[in-house]
Amino acid sequence: MVERRAPNLRGLVIHGLILFACLVCVFPLLRIFSVSLRPGDRIISTDLALIPAGASFAAYGKVLKQTNFLLWLWNSLVITVTTSIIGVSLASTAAYAFSRFRFPGSKLGLALLLGTQMIPAGMLILPLFLMIMRLHLTNTYLGMVIAYSVSSLPFSIWILKGYYDTIPRSLEEAALVDGTDHFGAFLRIVLPLSMPALSIAFLFNFTQAWNEYLVARVILTNSLMYTWPLGLFGLQGQYLTQWGMFSASALLVTIPVLGVFLYSSKWLISGLTLGGVKG
Amino acid sequence: MASVTLHGIGKSFGDTEVLSQVDLEVADREFLVFVGPSGCGKSTLLRIIAGLEEASGGDVLIGGQRVNDRSPRDREIAMVFQDYALYPHMTVEENMSFGLRLRGLPQGEIRARVSQAAGILQIMPLLKRTPRQLSGGQRQRVAIGRAIVRKPKVFLFDEPLSNLDAKLREEMRVEIAKLHQKLRTTVIYVTHDQIEAMTLANRIAILNKGRLQQVGAPEEVFGQPANTFVAGFIGSPTMNFVDGAIEANGTGAIFRAKTLCLNIPGDAAAHGASVILGIRPDHVWVSALEEGQAAQGIVADVEVVELLGSKKNLHLLIGDTRLLASVDASIPVRAGDSVSVRLKTGAIRLFDKASGNRL
Lengths: 279, 359
Ligand SMILES: Nc1ncnc2c1ncn2[C@@H]1O[C@H](COP(=O)(O)OP(=O)(O)O)[C@@H](O)[C@H]1O
Ligand SMILES: [Mg+2]
Fold this sequence. Notes:
The complex is a heterodimer of chains A (about 280) and B (about 350). Chain A is mainly alpha-helical. Chain A folds into two domains: about 10-55, no CATH class; about 65-275, MetI-like fold (Orthogonal Bundle), CATH 1.10.3720. Chain A has helices spanning about 10-35, 60-65, 70-100, 105-115, 120-135, 140-165, 170-180, 180-195, 195-210, 215-220, 230-235, 245-270. In chain A, helix 1 packs across helix 12, helix 3 runs parallel beside helix 6 (about 140-165) and helix 3 packs antiparallel against helix 11 (about 230-235). The longest helix of chain A has about 30 residues, at about 70-100. Chain A is globular. Chain B has helices at about 40-50, 90-100, 105-120, 135-150, 165-185, 195-200, 220-225, 230-235, and strands spanning about 5-15, 15-25, 30-35, 55-60, 65, 75-80, 155-160, 185-190, 205-210, 210-215, 240-250, 250-255, 260-265, 275-280, 285-290, 300-305, 310-320, 320-330, 340-345, 350. The two termini of chain B are about 40 Å apart. Chain B has two domains: about 5-235, Rossmann fold, CATH 3.40.50; about 240-350, CATH 2.40.50.140. In chain B, helix 2 crosses helix 3, helix 2 packs parallel to helix 4 (about 135-150) and helix 3 (about 105-120) crosses helix 4 (about 135-150). Chain B is of the alpha+beta class. In chain B, about 25% of the residues lie in helices and about 35% in strands. The interface of A and B includes residues 177 and 179 of A. Magnesium ion binds near residues 42, 43 and 159 of chain B.
């Protein structure tokens, strides 16, 4: 139950702080937006107005027409969505095994998964590149998907295993008696109940893959295969950095992420709690 | 409809043996209750029958067919779990129809069965709700409803009432008894509550430490307990036990304890044997000592009196032997009184001290 109380000093202070934090977060975004609207000759101005004098969407047009931006976006989208789907599928089944079955090495396996997270990401780039290269998967979607989905796997497995552990086994047993097999119980009972955790894992996979730069840098050398971060950084400094176009594309790439977040928030707060058991 | 047969069922988890050599025949349409203290292996046994747990040894037969290798869904059983195990993401209706949908029954048939079960259990108005929106008692009904729509050969209940408060528990106990009369299906019911066992069962199977102690009708296990464990577990308040020995007394026998000596029925065949005498508190008769009159029978001091409404429990002390008597509340006895005590001779049960088995 939410209790509504008259605002008190504490509440005001807390809300003030939250508001301030929001402003701090949003301000750079607003600046980028503002820069993206500036006409070409005014980029380096110190003008602080949100809507600059002579504002136009010209930079957006230039990004879309004069660069491969849409192609990079497409590459990113294909890689990210595939990565997220494969990553979550693998993690959800692996985590189920870790949560429900005792098998030789289950404890060690979990510990090792956590261990991989202790290794700095930078150290993994070279071995990862060598593996992808030997598999002849450089400059391919598949290579990127493999590289990305395995690197998010440990985190996803831990999140999901922790969540599965809270789901009473009796639910699956009831399903077994009712007429499913083990996989059916997983599919029809455990997965639907795990939507909050699955969406967290999905978001994690998605944002990781969407924003990733270093791994893409070493695996993708053909500019037609570039993901947007590579393409975008290519706009920097050949002759001079196109700050307007840079800002415009930076804003454009947040749109898919925003969409995914808004969509999955429904699952995150869905409150599909386990009220079906106990009294 | 089907009988259930257990042949030499054993179960170990690693090195711990939780069930050993369980042999049992549950007749078609019978209501059999497994009762025993917590941790004695009741749930494990039920789960072995359901196929949720694999026995380490022995066979399970349902309707004469060996089902050891069948998965739970192919055993034509339905189970009601202690925590109800309703699917939280489905409505009551979806919960109840889940098993039928999996089996691909036609829509009309599913709807008919669900509404019939909902009618019997009076949960019609709840069909569109989710389990979260139900009280404990309502969840219990839904869980039972989910079992009966399946029309299984055998119902398995694992302590279905243990999460309900006392009043609701009594209500549901009666409902389950009525349901069995209506459906006439074989029921195997697990509980740690001997009152539930006594009131519901056609036959009771008493388990202790993974071993079957006795199987019999409620009157039988109450009146003719096979050993001290059964005698102590069944019946409330608990049976009195007094250690002693049998001695010959002419043609008859007497029971002699440290501070107590009684004539007992039977001959002196068991002469000299160390025994335990058992007597239910109902069969300990107490009367006030008449002023100035020599005491009849045994004299006891009343330590504590517990009033339970129409009955009261008297905690008696005879020398250093303790005895509990359950008497009519109208008998005017107070703590500190001395009273005259007699035991109903026919109700005395004697057990071998070493094995605990009834003589
Ligand atoms: N999966 C398991 N692993 C190890 N021990 C178990 C397992 N399930 C039950 N046990 C043990 O078996 C014994 C019997 O358990 P259970 O059948 O649940 O008892 P009851 O239902 O009579 O209270 C208990 O000592 C319990 O700790
Ligand atoms: Mg149990």
